[in-house]
Amino acid sequence: MKVILQETLEGVGHLGDLITVKDGFARNYLLPRKKAVEANSRSIKAFEHAKRVAADKAKKEKLEIEAHAKKVSAVTLTISAQVGKDDKMFGSVTAKDIAEGLAAQGYTVDRRKIQLAHPIKELGTFTVAIKMPRDVTASVAVRVVKKEEPETASS
After folding, report:
1. What does the alpha-carbon distance between residue 123 and residue 29 come to, in Å, rounded to a whole number?
2. Do residues 37 and 43 make contact, with C-beta atoms less than 8 angstroms apart?
3. Which of 50, 79, 106, 108 has its C-alpha lying 20 to 30 A from 32's C-alpha?
């Protein structure tokens, strides 16, 4: 019997596969548990239509994500850090700091999506990758500058 799988089954096939299985397996396991539908011309056409609609939706969603990534990539983030003697930084700039800086500019980014191999521990400009859904990556320029200390008035 020919069936179209409604979900991925280990050792049988993947979602949407048109496969031939034994009649008993289809009648007793796949069909009652709604893991597959019988492959007739009507169900094949319906499945092909659903597949096209899903592909169009995925394409539109990817374009939106790419547009958002382009906006985020245009951002230059400036983070001021306290430095000591010889411009040595106290602490470091982490993914959390970058996420907070982007949120302050109106871009919400999950800090776990920020691809920072290790915290930034020196002054300068760095390019940080941000992983977005659908294999889209944005890159943000992060400038780490010295925090200006307020002048103390001596009297």
Report:
1. 63
2. yes
3. 50
